[in-house]
Amino acid sequence: MNKIERISSILIKLQSRRNITAQQIANEFGISIRTVYRDIQILEEAGIPIVSNMGVGYSIIEGYKLPPLMFSISEAVAFLLAEKQLSTQFNVDGYELFRSGMDKIRSVLKFANRDILEKFENYIDVLQLSEVRQESNPFHVLEPLIQSIIGNKTVKIEYAALYNGETTIREIEPVGLFYMFGQWYLLAWCKLRNDYRTFKLNRIGNITMTENLFEKRHPPLKNLIRQIYSSPPYHNIVLKIEKSVLFGIGSLKYNHGLVSEEIDGGYVIQTYKTNSLEYFARWYLSFADKATIIESPELEIMVKDLLNKLWNKTISNEFKNNQKVKTMNMNLPKVISDLLDAQNNHDSTAYANCFSETATVVDEGKTYKGRVEIRNWINDANQQYKIAMEAIQYIEDNQTGILKAKVSGSFDGSPVLLNYHFRFNSGLIENLEVI
Fold this sequence. Notes:
By secondary structure, the protein is of the alpha+beta class. It is built from 16 helices and 17 strands. Strands 13-12-17-16-15-14 form a six-stranded mixed beta sheet. Strands 6-5-4-3-7 form a five-stranded antiparallel beta sheet, with helices on one face. A four-stranded antiparallel beta sheet has the order 9-10-8-11. β4 and β5 (183-190) form a beta hairpin. The model has no long low-confidence stretch (mean pLDDT 83).
């Protein structure tokens, strides 16, 4: 940046702020304090009424009007891109204000640049699929919120909570606005909850200004955000994902706390940071068949737990009927078919009646003798794990048989494949060993 460009940029800084210090100017442009003094002197000699206040900084005398600023074509295109992006974040009223502002920018462009911008606008668009609901922010809440922050006066809002749909009236002391996960939020002191709360702008209904001054002195917004959003226990997660999944994930990865990602052959290594493990796990299940959890034992446990709940929930009459068809196709002995039905119905008495009075069961190194012990054993297992069995393969040889079954339930590692070794006597099970 040459000297003329730098002095012009300093003038723009002075126009856009109430006060700016010499140190801030020096840091912004990478120059010394002495150079700042010289540049300010040049502006003063050019007739710009600059005021220097000790300990406060430089400012332009209030009421002084400068000629309209000229925008470069690159700056104008940057504003155009911002306008297009903001069109997806605010409702019609808000978008009309952005368009009005863009028209004013166009009005100060040179004719040649104005034509370029008009043509370039045809090459920029925001894709909005009609069947996809796009959340927008109600623009009417912004002005009273800004006035509240500037004037240190409270506002009353009607707020609809997402988790229960309940609408409450809150008197709040707004601290500031911030953008996160594709949405705008308000951070404010809530008098109803007597604590800082985050409010999603598009869940704010009516909003009214009051004459009540703030009762608290609030920390800067950035400090509060760091304090509030660093306090929950965050979970670090590392995933290895097939590249083909990236299109389906889209921008949702940012909503779920993406920190970094790097290409590894046909895969992408992604690192996430989340404070809601269950929320992340439910999202992960949507592409889990194309991904591997590299780091986060807690996530693995959560995913298994959700899968177990899903499996147990789908054990319906339809499943049981399908299971009967499968067992019939395997030509299972009647006692094995009865055993499977009893297990999937969690009927411990019917299960025990498939065994002889003197039968034994060996499972996980423990031996259970007689129908009473067998009934108690399977009843305890069902109550604790809600076990379901699906026959996979059956081999029979004389008075013995081996059943391979997929066993699922609310235990770690579910589902698993187990082998059931049977010995029969008079149509009943005399011995069972589970391996």
